[in-house]
Queue: 3 jobs
Job 1
Amino acid sequence: MRIATWNVNSVRARLPRILEFLERVRPDVVCLQETKCLDEVFPLEALEEAGWSAATSGQKTYNGVAILARGRIEDVVRGLDDGVEDPEARVISAQVGDVMVVNAYVVNGQQVGADRYHYKLGWMLRLRDFVARRASQGEKLVVCGDFNVTFDDRDVHDPLLWHEKILCSTPERQALSGLTGLGLKDAFRKFHEEGGHYTWWDFRTRGWQRKAGLRIDHMLVSPPVYEALTSCTIDLAARDGLQPSDHAPVVAEIQG
DNA sequence: ATGGTGGATTTTCCA
């Protein structure tokens, strides 16, 4: 199974780039974040015409997540399922084949110390608890998405500039460790121990042109998936060219 | 400390 995660920064604005990616990379499952639209205006027909099924959880203007699959998408759960009032569409989970997929768009947090920063840390705890409830022993589990957090300074083009800044602060990294603490591993690091690999480049500072990015989009996988991984790459071609998202997709190949 | 660009919906919010 080939599985991808991609923050598309509007599914409607990005539709041509998404269709090109699906055709070129030929994944089996794709987790999208920042779809930025209500389910009723999600471009379902265009994707179905290209052979895809979709499960969506959207809202107007902000956030929004979706799972695309070549095959059947079953047992769809929207949100963190913990009884907490949450108007932000940031999580969708489903069974696809023998893999349980959790697709998350983690709160950005704006800046260290801001209200949204504290909200982010609390939200990540809720995400960890949700994943702990969804995980079962020996199961193939993939938790992927835009985590808006770097694991360590290898994921940062300029660690001095970003030291203890948003996306790089110690509390955020500890919150991300809450997920690896459940026994999940960073799929990308199985194949790439060195730094300098990024998934997001800021539009505002022309980060792509400066080759100045961060690795904040991740695929965290349970031991049976980790053992079966044969590759994990960042699709830089999707970040290049006309009207790209500010994120590149992460693509993993799971044998069997 | 601030602004740069991009998307959605609007003259502003969020990233």
Job 2
Amino acid sequence: MGRIPPKFFKRDPVTCARELIGAGFHWQGCVGRIVETEAYASVGDPACHTWSRTGAREFVKRHQAGDAYVYLNYGMHWLFNILVKGDEASGFVLIRAVEPVAGLDAMRERRPGMKNHLLGAGPGRLTRAFGIDGSAHGSSFLDQPECGISRGKSVEIVTGERIGISKAADFPWRFGDPTSASLSRRF
DNA sequence: GCCAGGATGTTA
DNA sequence: AACATCCTGGCG
């Protein structure tokens, strides 16, 4: 299974988000199978940070496709995004859920008592299980030896409305593997 | 099982 | 003041 290069993210956010379902997410010894993502677009998407945050627009300008965009949400959850920067469009893919594949011991150590299938079942949960925080912000993680994304088997992919937002809540830019037990919510 | 409420920090 | 969330406790 090949590694996904930064070039993968030189397209549009919706395509990238959809194609990441089933891929492997690798982070310092932990591996998860991506089962849920969302797309956010730099232009025309009121739910994207670039809509209202100057810092997010700066980030898109200064960073490369495939770099990590990590931020703290609701004062307590780190959310992990990947910068998408194509010629025609740019934005982010939010990794919303993964199924734990390897490094389960390390994950359980960070989440004592949590059921295995829930360790990555949500954008805040997965960063906690994988030990991801703000120090990953801006990193070119695809190029790091211990981190990155690998191609997976193709699976059935369903589409839905993005979760937890108030603006542009009707954009069907949530993607997932409906058979997974590790979704943040049912489709 | 469902729902209400609270924790908590950064942005603008 | 809003926010790309999660957990707990109350109630059935």
Job 3
Amino acid sequence: VVSWNAMIHGYVNNEHGQKAVELFAQMQREQVEPNSVTFLGAFNAIASISALEMARYVHCQLIQSEVHLDVTLGNSIIDMYGKCGSIEDACRVFNGMPTRNVISWNAMIGGYLKCNQGIEALELYKQMNEEHVNPSVVTFVNVLTACASIRCLEEGKHIHEHVIQSGYEMDNHIGGCLVDMYSKCGDLDDAYKIFEKMCAPNVVVWNAMIAGYAKSGEEKTAIKLYLQMLEKHVKPDSVTFVAVLNACSSIASLEEGRRVHQKAINFGCESEPFVGSGLIHMYSKCGSIEDACQVFKSLRACDIVIWTSMLDGYAMHGLGKEALCLFEQMCKEDLPMS
RNA sequence: CUCCCAUUGAC
């Protein structure tokens, strides 16, 4: 059973949730009894592919088995239901737990977040405080993300206070969340104050700050920051490029856009789906439908956003025939069209 | 073998 478990967890940790689920099924066909670690792996796998029906099925299976449902398993079930989009199921498990720890609360708050229920997430945090459960770093990360998602600066500042009172140091993890929260809430000055005080911001923190400016109409500042990031030899990733390409699109700066494209190639990010659609959109907005088309053709796996970016590009450039032709092709693909 | 966590794309 330990070998099966190791394999299942291995697949889950390498983004092969489907494979992990298949292994879990195969293991039982071969009459190996799952233990609690097996179920943890299975729940993680199901969560990663967001398979609600299977979540319920395996949850039932656990209850009918000999395996004792402890806090750890309960937490992982809450997490799984949250990630499968069923806050009701998560809530039922959470409410039915005989004992909870901080991870139970974190998983439940995280579930609300994933289901786009930021207000409920913050309400649960409040309840957690009332019940005198000590928040952990993950708690703060979750509630700051909740504030960012509902753009609630007041509550965000309040939680910032809690972070300071709790004595946690301003590391990249917490700092990144604060930068993101302040930027999304429109308070770029406070976001930058935190950013500049950080001693060694990692790529995520830079990205949050760059995206913050890019989305607030301060595209030039976003690009400037991106260039600073390169100077400081912080390695950009696909998130960086998507954010900067967006800034270039908004100000229709073809020259800058081309330079960013070149850097994306240098760092091996050019065929990431988000970067691909960002490039197509950028070239189209900057007036070069030819470049947009070339990027589109170079992409192997095209998702719905990439197709739509290209389609929109043709339409915006008055290329009706090309747009319709693309649409025909698009219909032959297996895409979730809206 | 062992549960929770931040930053990015089109219409």
